[in-house]
TrEMBL record:
<protein>
    <submittedName>
        <fullName>Aerotolerance protein BatD</fullName>
    </submittedName>
</protein>
Amino acid sequence: LARKYLSQARKQLGKKEAFYIALEKALHNYLKAKLLVETSDISKERIAEILQNRNVDEATINDFKTVLDNCDYARYTPSTDVMMQQEYDKAKEIITKIDKQL
């Protein structure tokens, strides 16, 4: 399931801005499909609250918020291909964890 949502981000690896936009969109699209909520219009705190209500563990929720924060920051700061790959891997891990908990 993670691969399905992250495929566009994977194609953008190496293109910093396009990658982080695609990664953020992938996380939102995953939640939208899994939780049946529109996430692009709500805050990270509200997303965390929704995940808590669905009994997703706190560490996974914090990791999810961190990746979203990193997507915001990375567009405006220097980053390397290694950093992008690490963010991609982290997002894949988070989607897998959330999927197992829902």
